[in-house]
Specification:
Elements: E1 6-7, E2 14-20, E3 26-27, E4 45-49, E5 53-62, E6 81-88, E7 94-99, E8 113-123, E9 128-136
Parallel strand pairs: 7-9
Antiparallel strand pairs: 1-2, 2-3, 2-4, 5-6, 5-8, 6-7, 8-9
């Protein structure tokens, strides 16, 4: 888990961004140092929970094992996954993330509504690394 990037569980799960108090720009991943808006003189950066829902802006799949420094076990078969770029409902920023397991590019269309849910990035006997995933609305899981 990346500390400060998301919080909560189930329906309370939210990505966390920051909003500049001077210009209102919203950032994800969060920005804690300075406003990235080149037209802003800067203001306080306040943590804000981001919209749970958005619409698919673009999507693709990853069908090959990425090269190093990507960490993967070469003894295990490569499991393709789907990546979705989502324009958040209120903030109008695009956030990239994996789809929930079982969702493929064949299930998606640009403009489709999706929601953010917690997911497992990786796990071993001692640790589970959590992340966010995108799930089409109306899909159980």
């Amino acid at each position: 888990m990346v500390t400060g990037w998301f919080v909560g569980d189930g329906d309370a799960f939210r990505l966390l961004g920051t909003r500049c108090s001077a210009c209102g720009s919203v950032f994800f991943p969060r920005e804690d140092t300075h406003c990235r808006n080149p037209g802003c003189r800067g203001g306080e950066l306040d943590e804000v929970p981001l919209s749970r829902r958005g619409r698919i802006w673009s999507y693709t799949d990853s069908r090959y094992r990425p090269p190093s420094p990507y960490v993967t076990d070469p003894e295990l078969p490569w499991e393709p996954y789907t990546l979705i770029a989502v324009e958040l409902e209120a903030e109008r920023i695009v956030v990239l993330g994996q789809a929930v397991p079982g969702v493929t590019v064949a299930d998606l269309t640009v403009g489709m509504e999706v929601e953010v849910v917690p997911g497992v990035l990786d796990e071993d006997a001692e640790t589970t690394w959590t992340t966010w995933r995108w799930r089409p609305t109306g899909v159980a899981g």
